[in-house]
Design goal:
Elements: E1 2-6, H1 10-21, E2 26-30, H2 33-43, E3 47-51, E4 53-54, E5 57-58, H3 60-69, E6 74-79, H4 84-92, E7 97-100, H5 105-116, E8 121-123, E9 127-130, E10 133-136, E11 141-144, E12 147-149, H6 153-163, H7 172-180, H8 190-202, E13 211-214, E14 218-221
Parallel strand pairs: 1-2, 1-3, 3-6, 6-7
Antiparallel strand pairs: 4-5, 8-9, 9-10, 10-11, 11-12, 13-14
Length: about 230
């Protein structure tokens, strides 16, 4: 697998190149937004490690550009900007994962491995898809096959969260914090109520059930058969 490293710190770029080579990965390195987008158009790499702070601007422009081009590569964003708002901004721009600096090489390699094993979700600048469930992020519309599913604003936030993390269990606490905020009573059953509504809307009329409950753990959206 070819990995493009977009990093203007030469020492860090060299470190990443050596570390990835030791694991059998082939790499190329660029240091600017312009060179990164030119490379992606020409080579169409499978994986991009992207720094936020580049010599000619914010790496978010690279991330958005890749998604606009609809090139199906995984993007792992690296940055010293690692506050919650910065991470959310990176993920909303189309990154598949966000790792703050400084970091351990072992964690970077683990994240690359995890991302490259997720084949059942498709990420673009404007859409998320899991199976036949498609979320248009511009129109804020959800479809299951040809069926348009009407959702409330909070239901949309929940389904977007699940579709950005296909196959990954999302705890009730994490969903509650993401959708309702930290001031909501953690003892409330509002997450379960909304999940029941979503299940009726996206699963009840379809043979393949996508939304699963993991008892004591939370909820997961995937295409595997119910356990």
């Amino acid at each position: 697998m070819k990995i493009l490293i977009v990093e203007d710190d030469q020492k860090l770029a060299d470190f990443l190149t050596r570390g990835l080579a030791s694991e059998g990965y082939a790499t190329d390195t660029v240091s600017s937004i312009h060179d990164a987008l030119s490379y992606v158009r020409a080579v169409k790499p499978e994986f991009v490690i992207l720094d936020r702070l580049l010599e000619d601007g914010d790496g978010l422009q690279v991330c958005k550009g890749i998604r606009h081009l609809r090139i199906p590569c995984k993007i792992l964003m690296l940055s010293a900007l690692s506050d919650v708002d910065d991470r959310v901004q990176g993920l909303r721009s189309g990154a598949d994962d966000y790792l703050g600096k400084p970091f351990h090489l072992e964690e970077l390699l683990a994240r690359i491995s995890a991302l490259t094993q997720r084949h059942h979700a498709t990420y673009t600048a404007n859409e998320l898809q899991v199976g036949d469930l498609l979320l248009d992020l511009d129109r804020l519309e959800l479809k299951r096959g040809d069926t348009l599913i009407e959702l409330t604003a909070k239901e949309l936030k929940i389904i977007e969260m699940l579709m950005r993390n296909p196959g990954r269990v999302m705890s009730r606490e994490r969903i509650l914090n993401h959708v309702w905020g930290i001031l909501e009573d953690p003892a409330t059953n509002i997450v379960d109520v909304y999940m029941a509504r979503l299940r009726r809307k996206i699963d009840d009329e379809f043979a393949v059930k996508l939304l699963k409950t993991r008892r004591g753990l939370g909820y997961v959206l995937d295409m595997k058969a119910a356990e």
